[in-house]
Structure formats: C-alpha cells, structure tokens
Specification:
Largest sheet: 6 strands, parallel
Number of helices: 8
Number of strands: 9
Mean pLDDT: 91
Number of domains: 2
Shape: elongated
Amino acid sequence: MIKRVVVLTGAGISAESGLKTFRDSDGLWEGYNIEDVATPQAWQRNPKLVQDFYNMRRKDVLAAKPNAAHFALAKLEEQFDVTIITQNIDDLHERAGSTKVVHLHGIITRSQSSINPELTYPIEGWELRMGDVCELGSQLRAHVVWFGEDVPIIEQAAKICADAELFVLSGTSLAVYPAAGLVHYVKSGVKKYIVDPNVPAVSRLSNVVELQAKATIGIPKLVEELMSNNIK
C-alpha cells in the first residue's frame, strides 16, 4: 500500500484563487517588470518600491481563499503521508489544512533579515514598513527567494522527492529552475501524475499519467481516485 505522496505545486494552482503568476502573457507581474521588484539588485536600487510591492502582494494573499485543489490535497492526508513542495509564496495550502508544506521560494506572510536570511519572523497584518528591523538592526524584507538568489532548501526538497512512493505535479510549467529539476529525483518506478491544462513536456520521465485539466477539476478527481483505490 502506498503511503508517501509528494506533490509539487506551482503558480497555476494559486491562480485559480485569483493570485496572478510571475509569468503572465504580458511578461509582467501585477504591472511590474520582474527585474524591478523581485531581484537583489531591485532591493538595492529602490527598497521602498520592493517593500510596497510585496505589501500589496501580501494583502492580495490574505484576501484570497483556498480553492478546491488546495482542499482536496489536504483531504489526501486522511489516508496518505503527504508532503507538498510548493513554488508559491502564499499560505493557501496551510489554510486549506495541509500540515506538511515545504515552501521552496519562501512565504510572504513572514519577513526576513536583509543581512541574514535565516532570521525570519511572522508578519502581523499585511504591511511591512521601512524602518522595521531584525534583532541585528537590519531592515526586514519579505521572506521570499528573489531571482538571482539561491534556493536554500532545494536539497531537502530533492530528498523528499527521492523518497516519494507516488508523485503529483500541478500548476507549474517546469520552467523555473532549480525547482523544475526536482521531478528528476523521483524514482523511475514511481507513478507520476501531471495535472494541468497545458501539460509540460516530460519526455525523460517514466510512468507518467497526464490529466489535462485545471487544478480545481483535476486534483479533486485524482484525490478521489487515489483514496478509493488505496482502501481496496
């Protein structure tokens, strides 16, 4: 009987809760160039602009609600040991009830020291102000991994994928590395479900089942199937 399920989610699952993705068709994120709001260089040039941008994204996240895909993945814990690895910086998986969530790119509801990223703090409300400092006296910024920064827990995520007995991928185009490389740590004999309206090319993977559907449709159906088959 399968117990360990690993789910890798991307922006597509949160988009169905109304949160825009990094890679919208116009190449902008909420009207901003990524280089102006999501890089270390942007923070150095104009920290207030970056801070204001993430304050508004945090406000959006707190106003958004988990959708059917989030709730279905939480329900999967009733029968399986589920770990969700997400590229998303929102907390919708946790609010839906998932208990083991690994945030590859950080989580926007926390802040971090601008000189020591290991110093993180919860944010009350949606606003992080210029002048708010960590215990070392440095300005606090959003606890997110910007383009050009290392992903500190990528090795932990790779080990989780290597131990998966069943793997699910949803809401990601597998275009952003190193996160996109995680699928290759899943053992070849493990069944891999891909749920997406536009299934990404995975020609190098084996045992792949493609479910061409948006997350709010495909994930609940898959969860129902997995839970039904697991008790037979």
